[in-house]
Amino acid sequence: MKALNAVLMSGREVLPLIEGGKGVSATNGASAGAWATAGGIGTVSGVNADSYDAQGNIIRQIYHGKTRMERHEEMVAYAIAGGIAQVQNAHEYAGGKGALHLNVLWEMGGAERILHAILEKTKGLIHGVTCGAGMPYRVSEIAQKYNVYYYPIVSSARAFRALWLRSFHKAADLLGGVVYEDPWRAGGHNGLSNSEDPLTPEDPFPRVMALRKQMNEYGLTNTPIIMAGGVWWLSEWEDWIDNKELGPVAFQFGTRPLLTVESPIPQSWKDKLLTVKKGDVALNKFSPTGFYSSAVRNDFLQELYDRSERQIAYATEVTDDLTESFRTGPVGNPVFVRATDLEKAKGWMEVGFTKALRTPDSTMVFTTPDEAKRIQTSQAACVGCLSQCQFSNWSQGETGTTGRMADPRSFCIQKSLQNVAHEGDVDNFLMFAGHNCYRFGEDPFYANGFVPTVKQLIDRIVTGK
Question: Does this model's pTM top 0.90?
Answer without folding.
Answer: yes
